[in-house]
Amino acid sequence: MQFxxxxxxxxxxxxxxxxxxxxxxxxxxxxxxxPYINQHGSRLSHRSIQECHTLEHGSPPHELYExxxxxxxxxxxxxxxxxxxxxxxxxIPKTVRGHYVIVFNPIKTLxxxxxxxxxxxxxxxxxxxxxxSKKNNCVVAINAGYFDTKDGKCLGNxxxxxRIAHDSKGIQNAxxxxxxxxxxxxxxxxxxxVLSGNILQLVGGVxxxxxxxxxxxxxxxxxxxxxxxxxxxxxxxxxxxxxxTAVGHDKDGNVVLVQVDGKSSTDGVNLYDMExxxxxxxxxxxxxxxxxxxxxxxxxxTTANYPYDSCDDQNFACDRKVSTVLCVHSPYCDPSDCxxxxxxxxxxxxxxxxWLPPKCDQLFCxxxxxxxxxxxxxxxxxxxxxxxxxxxxxxxxxxxxxxxxSKQCECYNSLGCDPITGTCRCKSGFTGxxxxxxxxxxxxxxxxxxxCQCNHSCFCDPITGACEVLHNTSFYEAAKxxxxxxxxxxxxxxxxxxxxxxxxxxxxxxxxxTAACLASFLLMMFCSCSCYCQNEQLLxxxxxxxxxxxxxxxxxxxxxxxxxxDSETVPMQNLQKA
Length: 578
Ligand SMILES: *[C@@H]1O[C@H](CO)[C@@H](O)[C@H](O)[C@H]1NC(C)=O
Ligand SMILES: *[C@@H]1O[C@H](CO)[C@@H](O)[C@H](O)[C@H]1NC(C)=O
Ligand SMILES: *[C@@H]1O[C@H](CO)[C@@H](O)[C@H](O)[C@H]1NC(C)=O
Ligand SMILES: *[C@@H]1O[C@H](CO)[C@@H](O)[C@H](O)[C@H]1NC(C)=O
Ligand SMILES: *[C@@H]1O[C@H](CO)[C@@H](O)[C@H](O)[C@H]1NC(C)=O
Ligand SMILES: *[C@@H]1O[C@H](CO)[C@@H](O)[C@H](O)[C@H]1NC(C)=O
Ligand SMILES: *[C@@H]1O[C@H](CO)[C@@H](O)[C@H](O)[C@H]1NC(C)=O
Fold this sequence. Notes:
- By secondary structure, the chain is of the alpha+beta class.
- It is built from 13 helices and 36 strands.
């Protein structure tokens, strides 16, 4: 058996020049479909494609095709079909077995994955398709780009979900990609275009098998190795029977993955057989991806085809650790992480409570987003002080205020308090922090801001400002007193002085009159006494009829004459004459 393999290897060595040597050394673990072996090696390297000139600028040939977009969520987004087909090969009719995968909404459900994990290309990681698929929840996954079998380096451009994972500097190999403007890219791509930012997914293969529905293997062999005359090795690459993986699209813009089982040199198809097969499927553009022992199709985490790398137990075949993978997954959401506030299901973000679909990027609470009276949070409305309710559209009950209306107003003569600050709203006629004070004298109304306008009193009704109302008699008295004081102190000081002078004058006059009266009374007493006691005894007896005249005082003429009647004075004069 070992001998047979050696023979086959030797035959291959003749075909494949120095690459065959490698294969012998590696006991078939690297096989002839790997195109880049000895990248910078001898001129005899049969993968002469690596010697192609790179294209940094310009527009190398490619096709763009509108990707199928409408995704009917009640239908599966991917279908896997099996085929066992008789094809008329260039040599003899043969039976071809494989899988045909239709991806209905490639823009949303197809991704190029780096081996094992994001960053796998820069780490030169290799991983089985199944493992990479499981890590990324792929429903269907297939091996994709080429890689350096010695160091695991990713070959060709790799763009994964819009992130450039590997830049091959514009090397002219067939590439498959999806653009951000939702087109399928097939063909050659310059470095400029890779870096343009319009690429969503990109992976490189070797040989553009079908272009615009017609076979393109012969042409692409020349295109991909334009400056190289070593077409011989490329012919071998195209002609060798093996397992194959290809990616392309149908006329509806669905992406199609085709996997054909085989084994290098002995079983499977060459690229011309592939061309026939793909044309029969009616595909429009298809490129050839990494094949041979790398060719692996994984469905729901399980390998569905027959990769043929030997396991440790040589009786059995095992999956090869490969490089990039084409992964069909349930539709990505936009954004894929639903902004961290939702879970993605079939391309739709199922947003957490209070987060707005479709992107779960905005909070929106209840019906009116907290009525502008609160802040919307994950947990719901956080109402501003003074407001309550699911939507913060309820005011605090009377007598309550503050956060959650949880504080009680502390007011006495009030109409409640401010629902936000708790400031007491005093009834008319009251003031003070807690409305504990009546208005000061002379003021009335709400917050006692109005001044009484009464003529004779500085007091007015503290509620209405009315001047007449005796709202509280004792208080009224106090106010009246106060008002008088104010009048006395302020308005009448000057007049007061004049008044006092008049008063003094009056008092002096009154004093003089009193003194004069007293004096005349004493005089009259004295006169009467002397009249009686001395000589005029007869006269005194004659005048006993009018005793009142006896005491009359004889005053100088004119003195007190105004106050005495004529009739009364006559007897006095008579008396004197007598
Ligand atoms: C989606 O598919 C279901 C079942 O195939 C069909 O009944 C429905 O009409 C489709 N909806 C749309 C929008 O195409
Ligand atoms: C392929 O078809 C498209 C239109 O479908 C056309 O624009 C383009 O020129 C064709 N390419 C070739 C090489 O024939
Ligand atoms: C490809 O070129 C080979 C010769 O190099 C020729 O025999 C073959 O018919 C060509 N195939 C197609 C499909 O043109
Ligand atoms: C993958 O498994 C799920 C059930 O787990 C099934 O509904 C679905 O059809 C499977 N996908 C494929 C492509 O077989
Ligand atoms: C709802 O309110 C929050 C703040 O409370 C704000 O950040 C958010 O943008 C609002 N949502 C909408 C849809 O306006
Ligand atoms: C105050 O007196 C003026 C005239 O001196 C009078 O017009 C006015 O109505 C009076 N006001 C009150 C409140 O009695
Ligand atoms: C009247 O004033 C006294 C104190 O001056 C007060 O105790 C009383 O409550 C007042 N009455 C009214 C009706 O305002």
